[in-house]
Amino acid sequence: MTPGPEAATRTPASTRGADTSADAAVRALARSFLATYARRGRGGGPWAEPGPVVLAVLLARTGDAEDTLVARAAVRRWAPDALARRVGHSGLHDGGLAGMVVGLRLGATLHPPLASVAERVRVRLAARCARDPWRRTGVGFADYDLVSGPAGILLGLGAGGADVGVPGGSGAGVGALVAHLAGLCAEPGLRRLRIAEFSGQPWPARFLGRVNLGLAHGAPGVLLALTAAARAAGDRADEILEPLAAAAGWVAGAAVPDPNGNAMWGPVAGGPGAAGGAGGAERAAGHREGWCYGTPGVSWALWEAAQVLGDAEVRRRAEDGFRSSARRFPLERRLFDGGVADRLGVCHGAAGVLAIADAFARHAGLPEAITLRTRLTGEIRAELLSFPRLFAPADTTLLGLAGTLAVLLTPTSGDRGWLRCLGLR
């Protein structure tokens, strides 16, 4: 389901909780970012990203009348700019058509004329889904993943059917996507998810022939999409649950022990000699620990699947993995290549871990998640306010300031619908 008109309704002051000066400073930074965006538009890059719209809706929810005016101006600037740019693929992030639909629909809550535009773009997406262009063997990321593939379309536009809809029934498009992802999980060892090509992307050769374990580009993103589909299907979910259980069990089994013997996940597992099991799991030490790769994202995907499956063992492993990850996660540790986007962004950095911690705190009640959420909120906020020299491209959800500010505003906004774009809720 896509957020409805209520997404733009401002949160009443009585329900916001204590409005600290730090909260106000974050809103002021968001207002400044959106005001600049409304004047200038996107600075560069070939694709449109819904990041400014996500941030605008959240600012309107948490702010005052002036904030709402700024938010609406940013949305009105974003829409024609987005529609004039090239669509890179059908998926959710990095300039995909599903991401444009999400942005237009969210934008319509602040600028209603966008609703009809969103519907026209949705029809284009439905036509693409109807052609079922995704490979079932020899796959690359775009054939399944959360960023550019079917998993992201399901998560971003809703697993219920009406949002994607194709000729032949409102659920036909979603049904085809679910069937495709379930089919990829049907063979032992997730053999159909072993990467065969990268479409010219500079990924390490050691990833070829193995199953990617990142939330962004790997099996955990598929788990989240199938979990959402199973929740929407209710008592009609039997055909989803079997491949979901098989995939969740395999990913859980791909863990390697951390120094304390707790589960953690590296970037890949399962090689040509793994004989259908998770053998060949790569050691996680020294690899990225964030939303896109590493234990935080994998733990969340497994926890969500376990909730639907009623699998206590997978849930235990997911919670143990996140607890261990939370205890060893310092912001001062450079998460990958360094730089502001890697350090504070959603995809690679601390904002993505904060969003996962918030989800675990809200839905699982893990004390370690609550502690990490509090600590990361303060540390990210302090660092942003110390030097608000934005990352580039600053308007993207995954790598830009828009996404990081959206994560900071979400807990007090009352609007969590956009988190589906991250596989969260």
UniProtKB/TrEMBL annotation:
The keyword Zinc applies. Residues 1-21 are annotated as: Disordered. GO terms for molecular function: metal ion binding. This is Subtilin biosynthesis protein spaC. Zn(2+) binds at residues 292, 347-348. Keywords: Metal-binding, Zinc. GO terms for biological process: peptide modification. Pfam families: LANC_like. It comes from the Bacteria. It comes from Embleya scabrispora.
